[in-house]
Amino acid sequence: MGVLDGTDSTADPCCGESGSRKRDREATKGALLDAAKMVFAERGFDAATTREIAGRAGVNEQLIQRYFSGKSGLLLAVVEHYWREEAGGCDLPPPADDIETDLAGFLHAQLKHSWQCRDFTRVVLARALVDPAIADEMARTLSESRIPCLLKRLETLRDRGAIAADADLANVAAGIATLSFGLGFLDQVVFGRDGDRVCAIVRTLAHTIAHGLTPRD
Fold first, then answer.
1. Fold assignment, 3-68
2. Residue 217 contacts by C-beta under 8 Å, 6 or more apart in sequence?
């Protein structure tokens, strides 16, 4: 019997965990994470049940408690596993030759990504208000994923001479990353702002920020 039926047999203590058992455990955890992400997005945190998540994953419900310490721990694990990778926004074309074009491209990509992830993001934000662990993970996602990704793009442009040498790019990246989330999720999803209007805001922001960063003679 194995992890999928909940028995989770014990490996030989002299030899440690066997390779096949470890693979089974990781496969089970991965299936639970995939299923949880879908169920949370569809139902919301409160309405989602561990029974449905386990059923979607094809595993024993008891394993959620064993691996993640319950539903809250499972949501946190989903955020840690997926949201950093998705929110990083590093799967983008190489930086453009000029700062305005590059910023506009980055912001437009964030708009698209935020819309694609809107259902799960709703769940994460709602839980962040009452669960400090989720809020902390959101902060880490921003500071360790999205901001460094944007900072690297800006530094590449500075190395090309497109940005003033004395520009405080760390703070610029932090500000733009926050703006990208606000435009992508709040404006599009929460406020339901017209897409053309959001795109016009992006163009204006890109132009204005680029003007401030451009080297002066």
1. Arc Repressor Mutant, subunit A (1.10.10)
2. none
